[in-house]
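Collaboration report, partner site 2.

Our partner group contributed sequences for two proteins of shared interest, and the home lab folded both. The records are reproduced in the order in which they were received, starting with the first partner submission.
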Amino acid sequence: MFNRKAQLEKLKATAQFDIIVIGGGASGLGIAVDASSRGFKVALFESHDFAKGTSSRSTKLVHGGVRYLAQGNIKLVTEALRERGLLQKNANHLFKRQAFLIPSYTQLNKYFYGIGLIVYDLLSLRKSIGGSRIISAKKAISRIVNLKKHKLKGGVTYFDGQFDDARLALNLAQTACESGAIILNHFKVTDMLKDDEGNLTGIAVTNTETDEIIKVKSKVVINATGVFSNKILKLAGRKKKSLKIVPSQGIHLVLNKSFLDGETALMVPKTSDGRVLFAIPWHNKVVVGTTDTPIKKPSYEPKPLQEEIDFILENASEYLIKKPNRKDVLSVFSGLRPLVAPEGDKSNTKEISRGHKIIHSESGLLTIVGGKWTTYREMSEDVVNEAIITHNLPNVKSKTRVLPIHGNLNGTDRKDLDKNLWFYGSDATALEQLINSEDSYREQIHPNYQFNTGQVIWAARYEMARTVEDVLARRIRLLFLDAQAAMECAETVAGILQKELGKSDSWKLNQIEEFKNLAQGYLI
């Protein structure tokens, strides 16, 4: 049962696990799903909330990576396109087939990108979700009405995948739980347990709500903490020089849907700094990004740099008739990519591979770094395979290629769901019943958005939401869609959670203050 109390009781009743996973982002949750579905005893601990860090701050794409194709990284593109097809099948409630347009202002570019995307289609093999087309200027404008028409020669259309990252993370946590894993958020790893020879035998975790410390034994410990991997490596007593992780910051701006005016996404393959720029419809808004800025010290709430904001606005304005300004930004969010630095120059992060790497420590700790959401399943399979080899676990094959993820609709058409509840997938019907069970549950938490009291209650009862931030940032995404609106309903959400979780008045006041301080960082 995906319930904190039940999970905690199960944790205390288990003498030893096969695998402990540290980190509740894409990699960690994917590992928990893979390992538990093979029959291993698994426990996962996340110090904050599922997908609190990088894994809730992506560009919301499940894609092969057109830029990687341009770099000649055929292997990464092929793997990612295969994984895109598997995610489309196994999490069909969250996967959306998204049309993209690459506008061309020279005839040469139109055919250059057109040929490149034909190759992209071919690499997807039988898992293609739609072919690319070279189109005229007239057709390009019909796809994106706000597209600049001056000197437009046409464009190229293609299809890729889109999803909701934080919701997928939550569904992976639920899937792992259904496979027998113990999954706990707001549990921080504070120490490593070792035998007399210095080999890891488990960890000590602190329940951050109660400060209770619990010692948990395990045959294998896996570090999946992304940009914070060196902290766990240090805690484990790594003797060799710590892994050189280069955190690269990518920011996204959220605008009103009118700036794109249509369902087709804009893709600019090469901006002034050589990166790709996307403007993508998402939850009735437009997400525009991203940047690639080296950051020295990682944090859970990375701050967007003013030059990054200006860069995105300026580049978007080069292609859109309706030019976005700072006052138009409803929310700005930043994520840090855990890139593994190659030898030599580490300053140009956009040239560092997005492939993943598994690191072995002297203590037996396994660390996974790099990668991206699209390839999370393959990464997870690789890590569990490595754990089997290096720690002599039973050689059970991975099942995740055909394993449905919690929420998968199994043949039901997403159009049959309530238009405001589609992202709950197979849970939508039960949630709708809850919402309709009491008049007060149908009340909106903000007048401008359809999110209601019932969804907050559902998040607390069935989705392990423990804070106002958990609800507004990752269960219903309002902080990412409209930071000001999220601040305005913080008190309402805190009141609902106080009642559901049995908290005090002082807890409620602290939650309101903490969330409003946090949300300020999402405003320009």
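Second partner submission, folded after the first:
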Amino acid sequence: MTIIGPNNTGKTNLLHSVQMFFTGHENTHDYHVDIDSPRGKGARTSIVGYFEGDPHGQDSEFYDALDRLYAMYSLTRPNPTVALYLTFSPSNTPVYNFFPNQKRPKDGTTQSAISRLQKQMVVDLLSEFECHFIPSEKSMHELIDDVLTPLIRGVVVGVLEPLLGEIETKLDDVSKNITSALAASGIDGLTASFGFRGGSMENMLSDFDLYLSDPYKTPFARKGQGIQSLAFMATLQWVTNMEAARGQKAIWLIEEPESFLHPQLSHSATRLLEKLGNSSTLAMTSHSMAFVPHDPRRVIGTSLDSEGCTEIASFKSHEKATVVLRKGLGLRFADYFSLGTVSVLTEGQSDSEYLRWFLKISEDWPDCSWPSLRTATISDRGGASHLAGFVRANYEILRKEQPTVSLFDADEAGIRAVSDLSAYFNNVGVPFNSNKEYVYVRAGFAIEGLFPDEWMRDARNANSNHFSDFQVDAGDNIVKYRIKDNAKGSISHTMRTRAEAARDRGWAHRWLAVCAALDKALGHQASSLLAATEVADIDEASGAAR
């Protein structure tokens, strides 16, 4: 999730709020209502966290306890969603509660039982997570010490523990030598000994130096700030894996990752953070176009109301999500596409979701490496006509900078849009050819047509109201169909569920063809760009020689 917009007044922005939620008992971050609440003295501040687990699996013990808590209130748990509230009273006392608006039973024994059970449940729930706040103002050295070094110490201690007896023997030898020297000097009854500071073996390990080689080995601190930031982001995945191995889920709260990054490194950073978000909970704030996801559901905006309180906004498209940033940065439209170094443009959000889904489930399939496609930014334009308008207005510029391929449905609207684009670009002398500059999904169909026809026939038999048109020929072969807009989500769920449960991959042959075509087209454009760059370099060198 990416958060864009101004922070709240006082010390607390949204990332601070999440961090406070996981450290509320101790109020580690010294939240003070009079200072930090926009409403000032006498206000009450609440933060709510929502959790979902498996009531019948690994989380069953917690849900059993939760059901007992519900029963003490004479309630029944409605679903697996757990809401936990942290409230700071006007006196700055932090209190966790699963039922903040529910009156407790009058019976004193039951009240005590509720308090004991709820306190233990809060501890159990929060201990399953490790929340890391990465502030923009901290130096890389401080961040390495805070995040990476403690776990490195733990790894080294794990190696040294089998040698603990030998280490203690060596220390005893040193102690005896010192004791003997004291006795020889005439001081009797004074014995020396060594131990680990605080009783922990980890305390004997102080610092570790991180080196980067390119190919010359250089201390981390001697690299440029941008490379340091990128290398630090790369360590977060290892930290996440280590915490997962000990049963904890990592939460990363990253403030303005664009800080200190050279613009050329932004796309590398977004790829690192996207992968990190697949294995952990990741939230970041940003004022950079490069870090705003193209999936608008992963973006929330913040603004301040008339009282100085933070308001939350959601967006229907990437362009609407970034309008505040664009205005603030004074960017022209051609400057802020943020499409990455390789791009696939789709007609709509559902097309992008389908493509991302198939790329994810096919990651480990043979012959599905698709190196160009898998590094591409997938961005939707809001319909066939909107995609056509975007391509018509901007493709001449984009084609000179980066591989960009459009994916069109091959239904009536898609074919009409491509025909108009082909005519336009032919007149201005710009190539626009199938399977090079654009790819069709399947002749006569929208993207849903990539699934087997029999699956779609079964879906229609199950609920004919989901289709506004369904035609077959004399041989009972499907000619065309149209899914109603309000049923596309249901059809999508049905198709994906069936695909993921399939024992073989025969259903995917059309998907494989589309992805292969996209990857080949992107590769073709990349080669053309490289060739054009080499020609330009030769011309420039020739001019300099003359």
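Feedback sent to the partner group on the second submission included the following. Confidence is low (pLDDT under 50) at residues 5-12. The CA atoms of residues 342 and 376 lie 5 Å apart.
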